[in-house]
């Protein structure tokens, strides 16, 4: 079902998932397209970003952001185009990054918009990826918390994902030995041959810990954490003294409903932090680093212009496919940054 | 058995403890006093510091420092006096901080010595406490990693111990709301009435978590960790977003031989670090901050001179009592900084 100019298709949160989300947790409904009041713009969604954090917003467990309410539109970053404007700063045809969520049309008073201009307009969906939230997460988490030094070993989980692929490449630009961890031989080959990682290991291999130990012969100085679970278990014993662990996600745990069986390894982690003098630090990119967005955008745009970074998108066509695609993303079925093409990429 | 000038009593590590150490893990032996060669000094121990980290050195589990070997003298910081000198920089009668360990006499080439002068000589054992390693640990861990801001809530475990008592008092100097946790009503009263903490809670109370929640009404911004175990469990749910947890010790776990029964709460800690964007950082004072000792010593000496800090010592007489005292220290039986008076306090 393609986008049309009379109907606003919206995908709502119908119920909260217990464990992995299913399509039944979502509901599609259609409304009339709303009209902007004075000071507002009407936005039409062209690209919708799907990201692991969305699983957290579907739950009402306490977290850093309020949950999506039942019956509300699923949240999400979009690249949108201004269709009508009653706002002095925006003209029809302007391209913006917005938080419009999973719908065709939305209203905004402009306060949460970021106007796109210059080279990014050649590839607007990049504003949701390499030049957007995932790129910003990779850049700040690695450089500010991870603080990698030339010759150090950096390990990155979800190595071909939106964030991980950039973490590894930036670490290579900084002169590090980079070992990725990904799911499956194809992704691992891609990380080594296309992204230029020194090595990429398959987390489905039974001997991940052994492999990791072999390819991190001098230990691990920075582990960029986005998955948790068994990858973390393999990494922890190899962390070097004074190692840094920026934590931007724990996708392996998002769908779990209970803590794993014992023994209780919490004291083990505490003890590793003490004995190895580790710095383990969680961060949420916009809250913690919003004030440094310009610095990121300038540097990353330059690297993109110089062709020093590869960024792979996993493009899915059609808003209707968003639920299934998010479910797959949480299982690692995507290959690269997931973006949903809600409408044609050409300006209206 | 008092110190005499002919005999070097040495307390050796006789065997490695399994769980809590016992007196059988130690052995007292007597030797002749050694003679210094060219470039050496002969030191006579006056004060010996006993500290929780010593439990770690009794084990051969991998740690940040090599273990004490079986049959070797137990390690420990001392305040010592130069008895004979074949070293140009030291004269007989000089007072130094040394790592002489649990013995009456030792030789040094001077490289690990810190000469005492000025006001600290009025109270030489302070060089093992408020102006030594524990003070340095409190100062740097709190100020550099904890970074407490006026009006924030700081919680400190082992609140009347060498480190904790200073952490809380420095946090008060910085304008924080300070809640201590200690073992027993007497220590709690002392923390409130003498140290000036806003509140001190008894970790033996069944309702510690409730009490802590009540007295940290605005959550916890900095938790200075030195104990782990159930205190940490009570603290974690109360940590505020962007909270900081400097970790200098985990005394509650030092004697444990197995991980606790499940469930495995390691993912719970990871998830708290992510959701609350916590910074959890281990540190070992000399390795991490050795280059900033002068800054600490200057500021702390000034606070001492201005009478702005209280520092309580738990003085034990006689080297022979060191084993029993360390065993008690690991059980929280001490009240204040434990120092062993190996010999009279007056310069020889």
How would you concisely characterize the structure shown here?
With 348 residues, chain A is α/β, with parallel strands linked by helices.
What can you see in these coordinates?
Chain A is built from 11 helices and 15 strands. Chain A is α/β, with parallel strands linked by helices and 348 residues long. Chain A folds into 2 domains: 7-129 and 311-341, Medium-chain alcohol dehydrogenases, catalytic domain (Quinone Oxidoreductase, Chain A, domain 1, Alpha-Beta Complex), CATH 3.90.180; 133-286, NAD(P)-binding Rossmann-like Domain (Rossmann fold, 3-Layer(aba) Sandwich), CATH 3.40.50. In chain A, α2 crosses α3 (162-173), α2 (133-146) crosses α10 (293-305) and α5 (208-215) packs across α6 (229-235). Chain A binds chain B through residues 62-64, 225, 228-229, 232, 241-242, 247-250, 253, 256, 258-271, 273-284, 287-288, and chain B through 62-64, 225, 228-229, 232, 241-242, 247-250, 253, 256, 258-271, 273-284, 287-288. β13 of chain A pairs antiparallel with β13 (279-282) of chain B, so a sheet runs across the interface.
């Amino acid at each position: 079902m393609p986008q049309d100019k009379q109907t606003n298709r919206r995908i709502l949160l119908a119920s909260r998932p217990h464990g992995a989300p299913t399509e039944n947790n979502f509901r599609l409904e259609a409304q009339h397209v709303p009209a902007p009041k004075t000071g507002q713009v009407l936005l039409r969604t062209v690209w919708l970003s799907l990201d692991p954090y969305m699983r957290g917003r579907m739950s009402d467990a306490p977290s850093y952001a309020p949950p999506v309410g039942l019956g509300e539109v699923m949240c999400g970053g979009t690249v949108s185009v201004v269709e009508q404007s009653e706002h002095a700063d925006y003209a029809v045809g302007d391209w913006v990054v917005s938080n419009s969520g999973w719908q065709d049309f939305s209203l905004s008073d402009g306060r949460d918009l970021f106007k796109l201009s210059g080279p990014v307009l050649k590839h607007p969906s990049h504003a949701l990826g390499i030049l957007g939230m995932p790129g910003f997460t990779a850049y700040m988490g690695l450089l500010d918390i991870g603080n990698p030094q030339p010759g150090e070993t950096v390990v990155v989980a979800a190595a071909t994902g939106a964030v991980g692929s950039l973490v590894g490449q930036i670490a290579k630009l900084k002169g590090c030995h980079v070992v990725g961890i990904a799911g499956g031989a194809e992704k691992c080959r891609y990380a080594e041959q296309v992204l230029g990682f020194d090595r990429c290991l398959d987390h489905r291999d039974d001997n991940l810990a052994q492999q990791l130990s072999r390819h991190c012969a001098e230990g691990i100085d920075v582990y960029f954490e986005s998955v948790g679970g068994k990858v973390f278990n393999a990494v922890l014993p190899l962390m070097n003294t004074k190692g840094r662990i920026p934590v931007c996600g724990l996708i392996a745990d998002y769908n779990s409903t209970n803590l794993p069986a014992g023994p209780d390894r919490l004291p083990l982690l505490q003890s590793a932090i003490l004995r190895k003098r580790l710095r383990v630090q969680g961060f949420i990119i916009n809250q913690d680093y919003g004030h440094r967005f310009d610095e990121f955008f300038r540097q990353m745009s330059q690297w993109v212009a110089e062709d020093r970074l590869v960024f792979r998108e996993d493009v899915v066509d059609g808003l209707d496919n968003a639920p299934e695609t998010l479910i797959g993303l949480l299982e690692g079925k995507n290959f690269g940054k997931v973006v949903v093409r809600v409408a044609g990429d050409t300006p209206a």
